[in-house]
Amino acid sequence: MPLSSIVTIVLRLFSFLWFVQSIGMFASVAARTAPYLSSHISYWNYVDPVLLLFAAIAVFLFSQPIARILTPPPNPELSLGGLSQYDLYCFAFTFLGLYFVLSSIGSTLNHLHYFILTSRTTQENDPERARNFYLFTQPLITLLVGGVSLGFASRCARKLTVIQRKHEAG
Predict the structure, then answer these.
(1) pLDDT category, 69, cuts 50, 70, 90?
(2) What is the 3-state secondary structure (H, E, C) of 91-140?
(3) Above 70 in pLDDT, residue 74?
(4) How far apart are CA 67 and CA 61, in angstroms?
(5) Which domain holds residue 65?
(6) What DSSP designation does 38 have?
(7) What total of structural domains would you count in the chain?
(8) Which of 52, 59, 119, 134 would give a disulfide with 15, using CB separation of 3.0 to 4.6 Å?
(9) Contact (CB, 8 A) for 3 and 78
(10) What is the average pLDDT score of the chain?
(11) Contact 117/135 with Cβ under 8 angstroms?
């Protein structure tokens, strides 16, 4: 397998991570600004998630040209003991899914408990309630995306392998 193919897989893995983080950031900004909906809301709050989303999409779409630039000119073959691109993509999505689920399950349960407790004692438009919802949404989204990544690892791997082979073929 060419080294550039492995670099492409790693770049796409990071772009997926950035995509998930941008969704969490969008939810966090929306939850934080929801109690203050008016004409005074600054759209500058959304600059970070938008830039991260564009970076994720750009890195995913241009991962192969970037990989060709980053790898040595002869682009040597690496022997991975019979591992195919599909196997590497399956591993990547499974690893990322496990990472997302395991790193966010504790925070999700903790923030869910806190959100439930404070929801009983705060008013609906209270900024503290919005802040608590903000704290809860980011780990929840990460947990859900991790579950989806685990559940659909083989499907995503198959599709990305087909796409990458088409690009490599011409």
Answers:
(1) confident
(2) HHHHHHHHHHHHHHHHHHHHHHHHHHHHHHHCCCCCHHHHHHHHHHHHHH
(3) no
(4) 11
(5) 3-169
(6) S
(7) 1
(8) 59
(9) yes
(10) 81
(11) no
